[in-house]
Amino acid sequence: MPAVPTAFLQPDALKARFAQPPVWQPEVVRENFTSERPPAQAAVLVPIVMRGPQASMPTVLLTRRAAHMKTHSGQIAFPGGKVDPEDANIQATALREAEEEVGLAGRHVQVIGELPIYITGTSFWVTPVIGLVSPDFELRPNPDEVDDVFEVPLSFLMNPANHRRHAMDWQGSRRQWFSMPYQEQRTSAQGHVEAVEHFIWGATAGMLRNFYRFLMASPST
Questions:
Q1: Can you name the residues that pair with 174 across neighbouring β-strands?
Q2: Could you give the CA distance from residue 170 to residue 175 in angstroms, rounded to a whole number?
Q3: CB 91, CB 83: distance < 8 Å
Q4: What is the helix (H) or strand (E) element at residue 48, kind and residue range?
């Protein structure tokens, strides 16, 4: 499958796509359930950072969840969490969680739309909220929830050449999932360039795959 054209990844094009969404179906809706607890409503922020001249090189901000977390520990994730009764709406949940987890203030985020609910194997019904992020933010990652924060070029994530499909038999059922391994070149405190491998998979990869399908769907007529 082709990569999303660069022109489709620019801020105005993304806003136009959500303003007039196509008729489409998400590719990944739910994971094989591994939890018997009642469903919990949740939201994540998909933060698209407007990097480069005229925001021509957008990136996606991701986190590595702390290793001691009860669910999805150590995994690559979007900032997000469960809906609180005090949240005005699902977008408010995503913005609140992003500020609590990584210190991304809501004033830096312009919400442009949502993707369909993604149901995780841990019984979270997750709404991905898409936001354009001005690059002048300063992060304050919460060490109780986040071990690392990094950015991946949106063009990398929206290119199926970088998507891997996995399958295995587990507890009598067939499990399938996507991954999008990304190698970041990071400069250490000593000035050395190091390669850091980020294995993006599971719910995060599934939601990104749906985002790809949304951007490549034929426009509504």
A1: 169
A2: 7
A3: no
A4: strand 40-49
- Spatial CA neighbour of 31 closest among 175, 154, 209, 169: 175
Cα–Cα separations (whole angstroms), residue 182 to 151, 154, 195: 10, 12, 10
Q: Which residue, chain included where needed, has tokens 């489709």?
A: 8
> Which residues on neighbouring strands pair with residue 221, listed in sequence order?
none
Q: What pLDDT score was predicted for residue 141?
A: 93
Residue 155 sits at φ, ψ, to 5 deg, of: -65, -35
The pLDDT of residue 121 is 84
Which domains are seen in the chain, by residue range?
6-161+203-216 (3.90.79.10)
Query: How many C-beta neighbours within 10 Å does residue 213 have?
Result: 17
188: tokens are 């250490």
Helix (H/G/I), strand (E/B), else coil: 140? coil
Count of all residues that appear for the chain in the document: 221
What are residue 180's phi and psi, to 5 degrees?
-140, 75
Nearest partner of 67 among 75, 57, 77, 78, judged by Cα:
75
Residue of 154, 220, 217 lying closest to 6 (CA atoms): 154
Nearest to 182 by CA among 60, 48, 14: 60
- What pLDDT shows up at residue 199? 93
**Model pTM greater than 0.85?**
yes
State the 10-residue block means of pLDDT for the chain, 221 residues long.
96 96 92 75 97 94 77 79 95 97 96 96 92 95 91 97 82 75 84 87 95 90 50
Q: Which residues contact 174 (CB under 8 A, 6 or more apart)?
A: 167, 168
